[in-house]
Amino acid sequence: MEFSELIRTRQAQAELLSGPEAPALRGTLCVTGHHLLLSPKPQATDLWLLLLRSVDSIEKRVAGDSGTITLRCKDLRVLQLRIEGVEATLDVARSIEALSSLESVITSYPFFYRPKGLRLGDAWHFHPLESYYKRVALETDAWRLSEVNEDFSLCPSYPRVVIVPRAVDDAALARSARFRQGGRFPVLSYHHARSGTALLRSSQPLIGPKKLRCAEDEELLGAVLAGARPGAQGFIVDTRSAQTAKQARMTGGGTESKAAYPGWKRLHRPLERGRHLQESFVRLVEACGDLEQSMDQWLSRLDSCRWLAHVQEALSTACLAAQGMEREGACVLVHGAEGMDSTLLVTSLAQLILDPLSRTMAGFQELVEREWIQAGHPFQLRCAHSAFSHARSKHEAPTFLLFLDCVWQLGRQFPLSLEFGEGLLLALFEHAYASPFGTFLCNSEKERCLCEVRTQTHSLWSGLNQSKEQRKLRNPLYVLNPSALWPSVEPQSLRLWQGLFLRQTRPPERSEEVWEKVWQIVTDEKTEDSRPVVSAPEPQP
Amino acid sequence: MASAPNSKYNTRSLENESFKRASRDGVNRDLGEAVPRLPGETRITDKEVIYICPFNGPIKGRVYITNYRLYLRSLEMDSAPILDVPLGVISRIEKMGGATSRGENSYGLDITCKDMRNLRFALKQEGHSRRDMFEILTRYAFPLAHSLPIFAFLNEERFNMDGWMVYNPVEEYRRQGLPNHHWRITFINKCYELCDTYPALLVVPFRATDEDLKRVATFRSRNRIPVLSWIHPENKTVIVRCSQPLVGMSGKRNKDDEKYLDVIRETNRQISKLTIYDARPNVNAVANKATGGGYESDDAYHNTELFFLDIHNIHVMRESLKKVKDIVYPNVEESHWLSSLESTHWLEHIKLVLTGAIQVADKVSSGKSSVLVHCSDGWDRTAQLTSLAMLMLDSFYRSIEGFEILVQKEWISFGHKFASRIGHGDKNHADADRSPIFLQFIDCVWQMSKQFPTAFEFNERFLITILDHLYSCRFGTFLYNCESARERQKVTERTVSLWSLINSNKDTFRNPFYTKEINRVLYPVASMRHLELWVNYYIRWNPRIKQQPNPVEQRYMELLALRDEYIKRLEELQLTNSAKLSDSSTSPSSPSQMLPHVQTHF
């Protein structure tokens, strides 16, 4: 595909304002197929670069013989470009508009990005599902790795391999898949070794108005209980209200009936999703960016955005699932309707609460890869636009951002227990919406295979794990915390994620600076600590 | 442990925490005794009661009352003390129910505390069983009404450090480079004759004579004349504090006052104007004319510019805090929490105080103009503004001792009416003079420490400890309204200073991330977006809200303990080493300060 058709102008003289405090940058502006470049005048050493994909909305204004373009980015930054010449302004604006809204995956920047120090082959070495299964196999033999979805025919949104009860054969899985929306039959999400219980996820059963049943699906859930600790009960956490779940039967869906699944008890914990969640996000970003607004009403406006209420609901539902396993010794199945949004939110947060390994740098990356990317969260649809876009299709929803916010809240309440810091969460947010890496491309493993993402792009994880980034991403205070993290979910304990939502109006002491100081102190302290030991004279024999 | 699970699912009673805190305070605890006692603390009575805990339901226990505290132990579990409350925090004791009232636990006492909680005890209805408990509590919680001494005068605690030595005004002014050729130290108020609510030692313009000061005093409310609080080390601009001028309805003028302000202005050559910040809202300043007060008008004070900072008076603040308590105790407002918080206006008041202080600091630092700050009497809002501005401007005050000096200077010595605002030992709980002005100041400091996590040597516990002892009456630090009263009562001789406790346990109060920076001016963001409710203080009694108990500091303490252990091990190694070699001086890398220690073992 020729980008050049879309580029109306190659160069213009411009001035960039990237925030109220940042100094203006003047120079030559350049539009390329994937980027907006600004090279400051005399020497072009300090190149400013913006991935066009990350532009969420663009606003142009002309006055006299110059114009201003306001770029609102998907990562919530707002940039202003003052451009000389009316024609140039309009051309630049049109080019950005056209290039930033391209939908083709294979012409996107990750397929062209070839950073120094990374080789294409190295990028996708890790297979979190297989390595997670190895861990589970050490804890119990109740589960097996099934390749029933090898060609994605059973469930287009599942990966090739899934972890299922050993007692259930592939034929039964196939029938269960037909009984579940989108073929998302119950699979293992997390095995809690200490209590001998399991966390599963699926989509809704296709009960429909006629109250259909599926013997294999019932057998599958029965096998889960049989494989767990003796006498274990099951909880089905439905992320819809009882009424919504019931209404879903009219369109062929529904929820598990008590009679058909002995031992399983259903709990409804309605979580906001889809359009409502997106609107909440849009309202919040609007409120945070509205500097004109009288500050007296900030709190009630924040309240009316309901974002923190969503954070609370997500965290407390995850607590419920985790509590069911750890405290009640029960197996837990989580699903909503399609099982690829709020379901993943709950299962991934529950793991973070229970599993110390998922709180390490590597463990968290595996969790995101396994429970979001490979589990088929449709990133391309959900993250097509961020909070500024006017073009509203109905697929966008900041579910993944909500997950990151919940993780941030956990990190705030347990500052020592996560090996990674705010820097990693911010990076994941940015890359989920626009990235030079291929990790968040497409909606499922199947699509990623078709697009050859694994062979043609670099993985974000290898990019992030390059050493120069480490200090920004890691938590200097981390110490392994073997116990579960039970967050306080009262509204008084939750905070607005300032580092993200107020990034345009930041407090004076930048969090990166504080982070850097803490790193220094911690590294100093370590050397100090060891000093007495090192200098201690060896006792003479 | 930092890993302790903490959530709504956790039923651990929070009051245990306050008990633990108390035990860290260096209280000598005799394990054989039911109640920990301070030296000088005596047991008065004990009684079986039911403590109606708003979070965990009724708990049967035995309450012990001493002349300092109320202490509750559960009857069921013998290890867990449930309450340890200094009687000083009690603001009101009410009887609930009557001898004939029905219903479980309806007869007893309801105690309102100054620290955002209420305590309820149910007693047996037979034989007026609450009467003696009520009388004893009333007597020892409100000793002033019963001609009893406040506990601070009975406290016989001893500490390694003497907190009364922390603040020496001459030394503090010398640190600021005073006196210099523009400013002099005067002893005119040595016997508190010029102004009975000011300290003995004042810094005034070099060119103003003591006679001038006396004439200015007649024109300022309660004789609180403009005096220097702080001088900028480089540009030599100053922060001056005072009370309102006595302008009155007729618009009186006073040549001496006008001249005096001009003299202050002239000590700074960089800007031709003196900036006056009147902390009040404009309307209030005008209204004060009716009672003889007012503000500096343009026509009388030519070379000045006046700004109003819109901070409300003590009554508004008191009502605002009351609303905060309503939404956090005993039950926390769940739905629309943020909107209910907004309706208390507490954070808005915090914002206005901080904004005012930022303006003062900015004027002095960037505007290079000297600044005069006053409100009505100059002991509430004025103290908030000058002390916060000084905290922003001068990194010295961000150290533990520096902050103690700041409080001692701007608040205690300059006559913030602690006795009236807090009501130490006083039973008039509805006294209109009570107001949480100092709490508001500490809240502002906390907001700053949140925004600049590495700028302060002290941690959150330090601020909470100060607030706890603002009420406790264990120390003499916050007693009485002014220096002259404290001197009459010989407070420094007869009581212990809070700073003795703190400075003897400094590690407990240290911020592990403190990085000392000289000459850095801190400008906090006073926008509502960046202010938050101090949950760990205002909602600390609620076990559901409780966050991890400062895990970072916990970890820091662990590291310190680890270090101590290493040092001890090192000592022991040296000991064995030197014993073996029978010549301790040859051990190569032994830190010299360890040696005396080593020798005491012999």
Automatic annotation (TrEMBL), chain A:
InterPro entries: Myotubularin, Myotubularin-like_Pase_dom, PH-GRAM_MTMR6-9, PH-like_dom_sf, Prot-tyrosine_phosphatase-like. One of its GO terms (molecular function) is protein phosphatase binding. CDD domains: PTP-MTMR9 (cd14536). GO terms for biological process: negative regulation of autophagy; phosphatidylinositol dephosphorylation. It comes from the Eukaryota. Residues 123-501 form the Myotubularin phosphatase domain. One of its GO terms (cellular component) is cytoplasm. It holds the Pfam family Myotub-related. PANTHER family: MYOTUBULARIN PHOSPHATASE DOMAIN-CONTAINING PROTEIN, MYOTUBULARIN-RELATED. Belongs to the protein-tyrosine phosphatase family. Non-receptor class myotubularin subfamily. This is Myotubularin-related protein 9-like isoform X1.
From TrEMBL, chain B:
GO terms for biological process: mitochondrion distribution; muscle cell cellular homeostasis; negative regulation of autophagosome assembly; phosphatidylinositol dephosphorylation. It catalyses: 1,2-dihexadecanoyl-sn-glycero-3-phospho-(1D-myo-inositol-3,5-bisphosphate) + H2O = 1,2-dihexadecanoyl-sn-glycero-3-phospho-(1D-myo-inositol-5-phosphate) + phosphate; 1,2-dioctanoyl-sn-glycero-3-phospho-(1-D-myo-inositol-3-phosphate) + H2O = 1,2-dioctanoyl-sn-glycero-3-phospho-(1D-myo-inositol) + phosphate; a 1,2-diacyl-sn-glycero-3-phospho-(1D-myo-inositol-3,5-bisphosphate) + H2O = a 1,2-diacyl-sn-glycero-3-phospho-(1D-myo-inositol-5-phosphate) + phosphate; a 1,2-diacyl-sn-glycero-3-phospho-(1D-myo-inositol-3-phosphate) + H2O = a 1,2-diacyl-sn-glycero-3-phospho-(1D-myo-inositol) + phosphate. Residues 344-406 form the Tyrosine specific protein phosphatases domain. The keyword Cell membrane applies. Its EC number is 3.1.3.95. Residues 1-25, 578-602 are annotated as: Disordered. It is an enzyme of class 3 (hydrolase). Substrate binds at N313, I314, C375, S376, D377, G378, W379, D380, R381. Keywords: Cell membrane, Cell projection, Cytoplasm, Endosome, Hydrolase, Lipid metabolism, Membrane, Protein phosphatase. It comes from the Eukaryota. InterPro entries: GRAM, Myotubularin, Myotubularin-like_Pase_dom, PH-like_dom_sf, Prot-tyrosine_phosphatase-like, Tyr_Pase_AS, Tyr_Pase_cat, Tyr_Pase_dom. Residues 1-13 have a biased composition (Polar residues). One of its GO terms (cellular component) is ruffle. Pfam families: GRAM, Myotub-related. SMART domains: GRAM, PTPc_motif. The active site is at C375 (phosphocysteine intermediate). Residues 163-538 form the Myotubularin phosphatase domain. The keyword Cytoplasm applies. Residues 582-592 have a biased composition (Low complexity). Lipid phosphatase which dephosphorylates phosphatidylinositol 3-monophosphate (PI3P) and phosphatidylinositol 3,5-bisphosphate (PI(3,5)P2). Has also been shown to dephosphorylate phosphotyrosine- and phosphoserine-containing peptides. Negatively regulates EGFR degradation through regulation of EGFR trafficking from the late endosome to the lysosome. Plays a role in vacuolar formation and morphology. Regulates desmin intermediate filament assembly and architecture. Plays a role in mitochondrial morphology and positioning. Required for skeletal muscle maintenance but not for myogenesis. Belongs to the protein-tyrosine phosphatase family. Non-receptor class myotubularin subfamily. This is Myotubularin. It comes from Phyllostomus discolor.
